[in-house]
Write a structure and sequence with these properties.
The structure holds two protein chains of two kinds. Chain A has 17 helices and ten strands. In chain A, strands 2-1-3-4 form a four-stranded parallel β-sheet, with helices on both faces. In chain A, strands 8-7-9-10 form a four-stranded parallel β-sheet, with helices on both faces. In chain A, strands 5-6 form a two-stranded antiparallel ribbon. By secondary structure, chain B is an alpha/beta fold. Helix content of chain B is about 55%, strand content about 10%. Classes of the chains: A alpha/beta, B alpha/beta. At the A-B interface, helix 16, strand 10 and helix 17 of A face helix 8, strand 7 and helix 14 of B.
């Protein structure tokens, strides 16, 4: 096996990366001064977030999941988790929750070191993750902040019915919007929402083009490790803004240029020189050893051509776009369509589609120890996909932000074995 | 003649296998890994090559004296004498290391009495080795450290006095054995064989010239390793290029297929991890599952239990087999193994019943991995150190029969070498690919 690394030093950071970095630091600054600047703060989860709606009311959104994963990448999650365990959260509780609660107990210093203000509202859109409910219950208890619950019906039979849609629109119109009006002291401006949704759709178009560039050989992107950066702005506080549109336009230009030159993805360890394996990945990544984890794939020349994790804040590559002509209906569709709100058969169908469309050599599950929402049923999905596609499935285990669950040697053994297994299958005999 | 070498660096033991061009196993090497993978790899490899030379030596012997009575006996004596020479070499080297450690210690007032004690201890160790070496050889799971350790400790107790405390002698040993274990072989095959031959000739003077002829024929035969592949937990530490490192899961699959071509499901319970592997009719892995980062229920767990009970690892299975009423154990946590055991003992359960329960608990964990990998198909092959444990095998057979029906269970006497055999086969195939290209 040749080492795919050609340039291990002086990795060029793309302009879009720098742009995103600046956007994020500016965002965290805005968050930390929100109350001083007279703004209200609303906490929300990524799946089913209604960022455009919040921004319509000039509310400042905060995403506890993002803080947790950022803290994981910055290697402070272990301490926060222990702090949360000290007050009685068990070892098996979702580590995002414990990381967030630990951060709260230690003064709510965010990933940039700036203080995250207390919430004026906890906006809870239930999208397939029961833990979300309990998480905000805990925060509500701690802060005494009100909770706005948008109940998103689960796609239990794999479809969105008119009834489900009406139910959500009614909640938005009769409950959520009045609550947002009362918190912000502003009247709902539907026109403003429409214009934001127009910008959302524009950015979504470019995001999909970026994600689908992985159909090329070699793929110019890594749709999992690189993908988590690509979804950053649109899954969080920027959807519906001009900044977001500009970011995705620039990203798309960069990727199209890479594709035109037949280049592989940029990784922290250099450019991927040879694409040896094309994989589809199910499940969130590990954040505490994110770079080491990525490097294991990079070292083997394995590129992720599609992933489901990059769909938790919205599945856009099957056609959904925010529709400015139906502002509340489109928010309902968005929430119900998030990956976390899909049932197992729909997830299997989506994965199968990825394996076929992206000409993957196989698919890999990264099963998250502390996330039952994701992990339950993943082995069944794997078996079903093996049956349907004839492609080998792989299974590794790690965690979101608890470094105690990350064993590099174990994951490396499994990953290498899996890739060698693909290699053998390709050759059709023992070599 | 060319050979193919496979090395399996396990977390507990390191294994090496030499295959000839017909894919026959001609040499096997086994050593304890301790903490140094590099040394373990070189020791296992060296032993496998020595073993391969003896394989040819036996063939030469059979050729020249075919049908002659005592041929096998002669061979066994020579091999045993060779091992004795190896052992004595290490005893001497350890002796020197202990003396150096003594010189470097600050206890100047003990220098002369300790020196005499060490000389006496090692003289007795050597004498005992010459007297009872075959006895020690009978149990191949005992490595140099195990044999010399128990001798040294007993003798140190005997030679300690009020002024020369036992702890002082023990400390000298502890420091020295670590150094000794981290050394490579240190002698040539030729010199050790020469010494062994003299020893054997003393027993069989009538065969002295035969031994000489056979030995020189074997020494003339060059041992050329054509290709080498490494695998196992410590594989990253091998000084091999990446293409010569193979996943242990693939090696186990192929190795199991080598021993039992009809194998479809393989279970390997090693020191650090447990693997459930499905293979096709060519030994190609089609699916696998292994334990996560927690090594609960792996071989190491049994090791802790044995330490806790102060018995040998190999005694666990037979003890558990004597159980009449297995105790239900829920935790297979390696860290808490000792606590669980003491808990149970304090509740009045017998050692045998607790051990039976422990074996069932680790087997249940393996069953979960098996089912997650796709199930148990005919034929089923059990490998790894734990496959040597009769109680684990019994519990596994029962659970498989209960859950999957009757399955043919294979355990090869060379099962500990399964990964190394797979690695050697990969070496052989990679090499023939190169030739074809």
């Amino acid at each position: 096996m040749s080492n795919p690394a050609t340039h291990t030093h002086n990795v060029k950071k793309d302009d879009s990366m720098l742009r995103q970095k600046n956007m994020l630091s500016e965002y965290y600054r805005r968050v930390s001064f929100a109350h001083e600047e007279g703004k209200k703060v609303v906490y929300s989860f990524v799946p089913g977030n209604l960022t455009e709606l919040f921004l319509t009311f000039d509310l400042v959104p905060v995403y506890p999941e993002i803080n947790a994963l950022q803290n994981g990448m910055r290697k402070v999650s272990a301490r926060y988790i222990q702090t949360a365990e000290k007050i009685g959260h068990s070892e098996d509780v979702c580590t995002y929750v414990k990381c967030d609660i630990g951060m709260l107990l230690e003064g709510n210093k965010g990933p940039t070191g700036e203080r995250i203000p207390e919430p004026d509202l906890l906006f809870l859109s239930y999208t397939g993750c029961f833990t979300f409910l309990k998480w905000f219950e805990n925060l509500a208890c701690h802060y005494g902040a009100p909770v706005a619950l948008l109940h998103t019906p689960y796609q239990g039979d794999g479809t969105i019915t008119q009834n489900m849609r009406d139910y959500m629109v009614r909640q938005l119109r009769d409950e959520i919007i009045p609550q947002l009006e009362s918190i912000s002291g502003k009247k709902f401006d539907e026109e403003r929402l429409r214009s934001m949704l127009r910008l959302s759709a524009q950015a979504e178009e470019d995001l999909v083009a970026v994600l689908q560039s992985a159909r090329l050989r070699p793929s110019p992107i890594d749709a999992y490790f690189g993908g988590v950066y690509y979804i950053g702005p649109i899954f969080t506080a920027f959807r519906g803004t001009q900044e977001c549109v500009d970011y995705y336009a620039e990203l798309r230009r960069e990727i199209e240029e890479r594709a035109a030159h037949g280049l592989g993805p940029v990784t922290p360890d250099g450019e991927m020189a040879e694409e040896r394996y094309r994989l589809v990945v199910e499940g969130p990544p590990n954040w505490t050893s994110f770079r080491d984890f990525w490097k294991m794939f990079y070292d083997e020349g394995a590129v992720i051509v599609a992933s489901t994790y990059t769909k938790v804040g919205g599945v856009y590559d099957t056609g959904f776009r925010h529709n400015p002509d139906d502002p509340l209906g489109t928010l309902a569709d968005y929430c119900m369509g998030c990956y976390t709100n899909l049932n197992l058969p729909s997830r299997v169908n989506l994965l199968q589609r990825y394996i076929d469309e992206y000409q993957a050599d196989g698919f890999l599950v990264n099963s998250i120890k502390s996330c039952n929402s994701f992990a339950a049923g993943e082995l069944l999905m794997l078996r079903e996909l093996e049956k349907r596609t004839g492609k080998p499935g792989g299974f590794i285990e790690s965690d979101l932000v608890d470094p105690r669950y990350f064993s590099a040697a174990n994951i490396k053994t499994r990953l290498e074995s899996y890739l060698q297994m693909i290699e053998q299958k390709r050759k059709g005999k023992v070599h | 003649m060319g050979f193919y070498l496979g090395i399996d660096l396990g977390s507990t033991t390191s294994k090496a296998v030499v295959l000839d061009e017909d894919e026959q196993i001609v040499g096997r090497g086994l050593t304890n890994t301790r903490s140094n993978y590099e040394v373990a790899a070189s020791l296992a490899q060296e032993e496998a090559l020595v073993n391969a030379r003896f394989y040819y030596l036996r063939r030469e012997l059979e050729k020249s004296e075919s049908g002659a009575p005592g041929c096998e006996q002669l061979f066994q004596q020579l091999e045993s004498d060779f091992r004795l020479e190896q052992h004595l070499f290490r005893v001497n080297r350890l002796h020197e290391t202990c003396l150096e450690a003594l010189e470097n210690s600050s206890a100047l007032h003990l220098l002369s009495s300790a020196r005499s004690a060490l000389d006496a201890i090692f003289t007795e160790c050597r004498e005992e080795a010459v007297r009872d070496f075959d006895l020690h050889q009978a149990d191949r799971s005992r490595f140099f450290r195990d044999i010399i350790g128990s001798q040294y400790m007993a003798l140190a107790e005997k030679h300690s006095t009020r002024t020369l405390p036992y702890d002082f002698l023990l400390n000298i040993y502890d420091r020295s054995i670590l150094k000794e274990e981290n050394r490579s072989v240190g002698f040539t095959f030729e010199s050790a064989l020469g010494a062994a031959r003299n020893r054997t000739a003393a027993h069989f003077p009538q065969h002295a010239s035969l031994l000489q002829t056979v030995a020189s024929r074997v020494l003339e035969r060059p041992l050329e390793v054509l290709a080498c592949v490494g695998t196992g937990y410590g594989r990253q530490r091998l000084p091999f290029p990446k293409e010569q490192i193979r996943s242990e899961i693939l090696c186990h699959g192929l190795g199991a297929h080598y021993f039992f071509p009809a194998t479809r499901t393989v279970l390997d319970i090693g020191g650090q991890d447990t693997k459930a592997i499905q293979v096709d009719d060519e030994g190609v892995v089609t699916s696998f599952q292994m334990n996560d980062r927690c090594a609960a229920g792996c071989g190491r767990y049994l090791g802790y239990i044995a330490d806790e009970l102060n018995i040998g690892l190999h005694e666990l299975g037979p003890l558990a087999m004597q159980s009449r009423r297995s105790v239900r154990i829920t935790s297979t946590c390696t860290v808490f193994a000792g606590a669980e055991l003491r808990d149970r003992l304090s509740l009045g359960d017998s050692r045998e019943d607790i051990l039976a329960g422990l074996h069932r608990a680790i087997t249940l964990r393996a069953m979960s991995l098996l089912s997650r990998s796709g199930g148990v198909f005919n034929e089923f092959t059990f490998t790894g150190g734990v496959a040597k444990n009769s109680a684990a095998v019994k519990a596994l057979s029962q659970l498989i029969a209960e859950n999957y029906g009757e399955r043919k269970l294979n355990i090869h006497p060379d099962s500990i070498y399964t990964g190394a055999v797979g690695a050697a086969l990969y070496a052989r195939r990679a090499s023939s690919d190169r030739k074809a290209a």
